[in-house]
Amino acid sequence: MARPRPPGLIAVAAAAALVAWCLCGPASAAAAAGGEAGGGGAGPEGDVLIAFRETLRGPDGAPPGPLRAWGTPAVPCRGKASQWFGVSCHGNGSVQGLQLERLGLSGAAPDLGLLAALPGLRVLSLANNAIAGAFPNVSALAMLTMLYLSRNRFSGVVPDGTFHTMRGLRKLHLSSNELSGPIPSSITSPRLLELSLAHNQFNGPLPDFSQPELRYVDVSSNNLSGPIPEGLSRFNASMFSGNEYLCGKPLDTPCDKLASPSNMSTFMTIAVVLIVVGVILAAAGIATGVIGRRRRKRRRRRPGPGEPGGDQTPSNPKLHTAPAVNINRGSATAAASTAAAAGTSASGGGGGAAAKRGGRRDEHGRLVFVQESRKRFEIEDLLRASAEVLGSGNFGSSYKATLQERPAVVVKRFKDMNGVGREDFSEHMRRLGRLSHPNLLPVVAYLYKKDEKLLITDYITNGSLAHFLHGNRGSELDWGKRLRIIRGTARGLGHLYDELPMLTVPHGHLKSSNVLLDGDMEAVLSDYALVPVVTASAAAQVMVAYKAPECVAAAAAGKPSKKSDVWSLGILILEVLTGKFPANYLRQGRQDNADLAGWVSSVVSEERTGEVFDKDMAAAGAGAEDDMLKLLHVGLGCCDADVDQRWELKTAIARIEEIRVPDPTPTPAAAADAAEPSPSTTTTTNSGETRS
Question: Nearest-5° angle of CA 595, CA 601, CA 606?
Fold first, then answer.
C-alpha cells in the first residue's frame, strides 16, 4: 500500500506549480518550480523532493545518507547544473531526472504520485535497491520518458493499464524482480526504444510490438508462452531464452511442434500410455530371452548321435565361452580398422566427415554476428573494404575498415585467444553481445579460427584517451572533460560488474588506450571481459589486471582478485589527473608496478599536492582544486596495495558521482537546445543502464 502524502509540503508545491503553469506556460512553470526561487527554502521543486525523500527508507530505516544533504545548497538546480545528489536538471533550472540507485532502499515502493508536481521530470531510476512489494503507481508520472526499476524485489501482477498514460515512454527496464502475471498490453508505447523484462515470472503471450524504432528487447528467463510476434523476430534468440513454451523465429522451436501448457494434459496422457506400452514390450522381450536361453541350454545338454557326452557339458568353458570372446574381439578390431580407414568413428558413420566439413567452414568461413539488429556483411566485404592500420598491441593488430554504405568498423586480430574451446568461446561472445551500455563498446561480430580470432566493433571517432593525454593534445582535456571521462569509465566498469558477476575481473584490461572517446568526448570502454578466453600465460604477461600488487606478490602466483579492476581504475584516475603515463604498463610479467601510485602518494604525503596535477588541466580548472583533490583521493583509495584496504568498486563509483561536474562553456546551438527540454536527452546512472 502506498504511504499517505505529507499534506503541507505537497499542497504548497502542487499549488505553486499549477499557478505558474496557468499564468506563464509550461516552460516558465518548470523554471518557477525549479531552483531559482527568490525567497528562502528549497523552492517548490526542492520541497517536493524533500517530501519524497521522507518516504524513502535506507538500511537504517531512515532516508539514505547521500539524500540527507538535500536542502544544501538551497535549490536542487542552478541552470543545468545539479546541486543535489542524484538529481539532473534541464537548462531552465527545473528537475529533469532522479537517479537514486545503489542506495540500499528497502520496504514498500514509495508513492511516486508525489513526483507528479515536477512537470519537467523525464527520467526516474530506483534500480539496484531492495524495494519490495507491489509495483509502484508509475501512471501518475505521465511525462516520464525513461523508467529504470531493475534489480529490486517488486512482486505480483502489473495492472494492464499501468503504462496507458505514458505515451512518451522510450525506455523501460524492469529486469531481475519477481513480477508475475501477463505482460501489460499498455507497455507497447508507440515511442518505445528499449524494454527489459528479463528474470521475472511473467507468463502468457507476448504483446504485439510493432514500434519501428524499437531497438532492444529482453524477455529472457520468464514463463512466457505462444508465438513470438513478427515485430520481435529480428532480435537475438538469447533475448527470448528461458521461456520453455515460446516458439517461432528467432527461436529454433516451430510453433506447430510445441507442446503448450494448454495441451499438456493430453501430452502427458500420451506419454504415460507410451511408457506403459514400452514397459510391457520390454518385459515380453526379457521373458522371451530367458525362455530361449533355457531351451538352448537344454539342447546343449543332449549329446549328438555317436558323440561322447562327458566333455560337452556347460561346465567346460573351452568349447562355449572362449570362442564367444574371440569372436567379439575380432569384430571390434575389424570395426575400428574400418573406421580409421574411412575417417569416421565406428559408431558415427558419416559424422566424422560432417564434423570435418564444419571445422573447415569455421576455419575459413563466416562472421558470427552477436548484435542481431546490425546489418550483415561477410569477411569478403572486409577484405574488399578500404583499410587503415590503427596499430599493434600486446594481443595483435587492429585496422579500420570502411565498408560501402555502412559505418566504419574496427577489426581486431587476436593471437593468444585459445583459453577455451569453440563452444565456450562462442557462448562468451554471445554473452558480451547482450551487454548494452553507453560507456561500453559493443562487440558486433566475431570470427573463430584455431590459431587466431577476429573481433568486430564499431569505430569510435576521437580515438583513445591515451592519444589525448600523451599525444600532445592534453590541452583539449580540461578538468570538466576529464571528470566526465572518469565518471563514464566508472559507470561502464560498474555495469560490467553487475552483468558479469561470475568473472573475477569483469574488465581485466582497463587502461587509457582502451578508453575510447566518442564525438561528445564521452568514455567508451573496449577490450573488456577477455580474460576467460585468453590463454593463461598471455593474460599473466600482458593484461593490466595482472599487474595489480596482489598479482605481483610472490605468494599470489599471479592470480588477480575481485579488486584488481579497481586497482586499474585507480591507476587510470591518477594518469588522467597527472598526465603522466604509467610506465609499469610497458613491462611484461610480474614486476613492481606501483610507480605512478607510489609517486603520487609520496608527493601528497609531503604536502606538495600542487605538483601532482597536469598543468593543462589545472589551468583550465581554476577554482576546482577541491574537486580535483576529491578525485585524487578516490584514485589513491583504489590503488591501495593492501587488497583488504582497497576500496570497493561501488564505493569508488559513489564518491566519483558526488563530485560536481563543472558546466561546459555552451555554444549558441547548445544554449538553444538547453532552453527546450528533450525526452531524448542522454543520461547515465550508477547502475550503468542506458540513458539516451
Answer: 130
Tell me phi and psi for residue 195, to 5 degrees: -145, 120
Task: Clarify whether residues 439 and 504 are in a common domain.
Answer: no
Q: How far apart are CA 412 and CA 4, in angstroms?
A: 57
> Which residues contact residue 282 at a Cβ distance below 8 angstroms, ignoring those fewer than 6 apart?
none
- 268-307 confidence digits (pLDDT tens): 444 444 554 455 666 666 666 656 666 555 544 444 443 3
678 three-class SS: coil
Are 67 and 2 in contact, with CB atoms under 8 Å apart?
A: no
> Does the pLDDT of residue 653 top 90, yes or no?
yes
| Same-domain status, 472 and 557 | yes
Distance CA 93, CA 80 (A): 6
Q: Which 8-state DSSP code applies to residue 205? A: P
Considering the domain architecture, whether residues 551 and 596 belong to the same structural domain is answered as yes
The structural domain count of the chain equals 2
Same domain, yes or no, for 538 and 587? Answer: yes
Element (H, E) at 652: helix 649-658
Pick the closest to residue 436 from 193, 678, 97 (CA basis).
193
Helix locations, 585-647, DSSP H: 595-605, 615-620, 625-638
Q: Which three cell numbers stand for residue 273?
A: 500410455
Any domain includes 288:
no
